[in-house]
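dumping this here so i dont lose it
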């Protein structure tokens, strides 16, 4: 019987990509790892690097700034734009999809090619970015093509080890979930799995669920596709109820009293870089058999257009309507605008109702994105300013500020509540 492999030690850990997932991952390793572990974060944005080295978080995440400031002040975490030598690399770069919904690997390829010259053999390279099955092996190809003197096979002195460990955290709850959630650990080889498990065990209290790389990649896609399919059911119910004159919110509340029914809440679409993207990776990997997954994506992707048409119908009764658009984040109480259906709705309304004035209320961002500021008929406003002047109040995101708002301001207004918080 083979003896168990010795626990891996990582003197230097490099996290490539310091966004919503990469930076918290780097900070947690720096805070929870061995006292002699040095963490180096790498990002192409000099502004991110400068803010992080000053102990400042370049995005909004509740309660995270004190953790980051602490590890930076103690010299446990530094940021830079160049990829250094390290014992382990965690790649947390974006994985957008192309027009055919296949993954665009350009950021993974760039990260791999920047890592390759630093390798001496024995390093661990983890892909944490959500990606279709086989992408971790593809990342290994990028590295080994650049370094033919190395191998991905176990047991060689020139081995480099590759694994996939998908993130499973919710923006807004990262401080809890980064440490507490179970983690799926999938290596390209058994030794890679062991090494990745050892690294994540330094800061994760949840169970380490070991498997192979392809299964780990598919696990993350499956989790988000499950949620997408269930949201699509709720969104389709909302369309049916509109057609039949039924209050969908009351209907769902009644149906959910059944002990084995838990219907989710409909909305203006599905956003974020996970649920709105990940199912397409399954569809692109198995296009003929992923019919239900694709149908759910089509339903959720079509919901913003339905909301736009409802607004246009109601705007026709006004000569130059003022529309209060409440929320452009992809979910409540965060500043993340990635793949936000609400943002897209406001953008398209500005084009399709050129005589309208859109007053956007987003309490979690200081400035509107360029996608909106390019429109002369869009401006940022407070809730009171926007709703007081508005002919139409369009609720797109259920931020807590909107739930607690003075509803008397909306009397005599046309109200389109896509989240059902004022029903």
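and the seq i came up w/
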């Amino acid at each position: 019987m083979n003896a168990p492999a010795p626990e891996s030690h990582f003197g230097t850990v490099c996290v490539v990509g310091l966004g919503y997932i990469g930076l918290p991952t780097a900070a947690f390793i720096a805070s929870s790892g061995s006292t002699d572990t040095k963490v180096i974060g790498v990002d192409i944005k000099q502004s991110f690097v400068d803010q992080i080295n000053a102990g400042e978080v370049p995005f909004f995440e509740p309660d995270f700034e004190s953790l980051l400031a602490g590890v930076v002040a103690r010299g446990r975490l530094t940021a830079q734009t160049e990829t250094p030598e390290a014992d382990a690399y965690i790649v947390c770069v974006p994985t957008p999809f192309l027009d055919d919904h296949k993954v665009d690997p350009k950021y993974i390829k760039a990260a791999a090619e920047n890592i390759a010259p630093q390798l001496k053999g024995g390093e661990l390279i983890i892909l944490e970015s959500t990606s279709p099955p086989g992408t971790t092996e593809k990342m290994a190809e990028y590295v080994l093509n650049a370094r033919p003197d190395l191998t991905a096979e176990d047991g060689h002195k020139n081995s480099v080890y590759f694994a996939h460990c998908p993130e499973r955290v919710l923006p807004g709850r990262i401080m809890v979930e980064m440490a507490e959630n179970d983690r799926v650990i999938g290596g390209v080889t058994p030794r890679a799995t062991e090494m990745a498990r050892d690294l994540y065990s330094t800061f994760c209290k949840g169970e380490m669920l070991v498997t192979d790389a392809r299964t780990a990649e598919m696990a993350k896609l499956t989790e988000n596709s499950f949620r997408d399919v269930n949201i699509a059911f709720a969104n389709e119910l909302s369309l049916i109820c509109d057609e039949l004159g039924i209050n969908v919110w009351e209907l769902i509340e009644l149906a959910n009293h059944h002990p084995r029914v838990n219907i989710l809440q409909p909305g203006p679409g599905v956003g974020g870089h996970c649920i709105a993207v990940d199912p397409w990776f399954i569809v692109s990997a198995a296009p003929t058999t992923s019919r239900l997954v694709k149908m759910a994506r089509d339903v959720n992707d079509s919901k913003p257009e339905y909301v736009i048409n409802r607004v246009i119908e109601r705007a026709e009764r006004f000569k130059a309507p003022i529309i209060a658009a409440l929320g452009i984040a992809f979910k409540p109480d965060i500043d993340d605008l990635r793949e936000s259906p609400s943002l897209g709705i406001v953008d398209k309304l500005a084009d399709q109702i050129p005589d309208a004035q859109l007053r956007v209320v987003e309490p979690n961002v200081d400035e509107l994105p360029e996608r909106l500021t390019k429109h002369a008929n869009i401006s940022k406003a407070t809730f009171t300013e926007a709703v007081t002047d508005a002919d139409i109040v369009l609720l797109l995101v259920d931020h807590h500020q909107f739930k607690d708002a003075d509803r008397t301001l909306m009397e005599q207004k046309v109200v389109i509540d896509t989240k059902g918080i004022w029903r």
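Residues 55 and 69 are 4 Å apart (CA to CA).
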